[in-house]
Amino acid sequence: MAASTEWLRVRGIGRERFAGNLADCLTEMGYAIERSESTEPPESRLTARLSRMNPAVPESARELRFSLTPTSGGAVIAWVAPTEVPASDRPRLDRMVREITAGLERAVLTESHATAKVTKPPQAHLPWGPAP
What we know:
TATA-Binding Protein; 2 helices; alpha+beta
């Protein structure tokens, strides 16, 4: 998974629940979700394909892929695809990423009664953005 980039971490809930939160958030935006799990290595993979018209979703984001792996006390989401975004799509995709992040933060806080928290990893960046 060399092409992936750590995007978000969660502390206080597990990988499967965090994958469910991400799937719910993407479903609300109009994506159809395909989810697969593996035990060696422990990983959840999500592929999201836009199935309902959403003018906020740029062309380059019609298909998204993520990988979630467990960490000590939580999980991490790696952004797998898309890795390259045309300059004209970047503002809309950056806004969409902020909306997904905010949705995940709300879902995790609500579900865990504010005991779990979504954070950005120290070296977090998206593939089309500048590296830290």
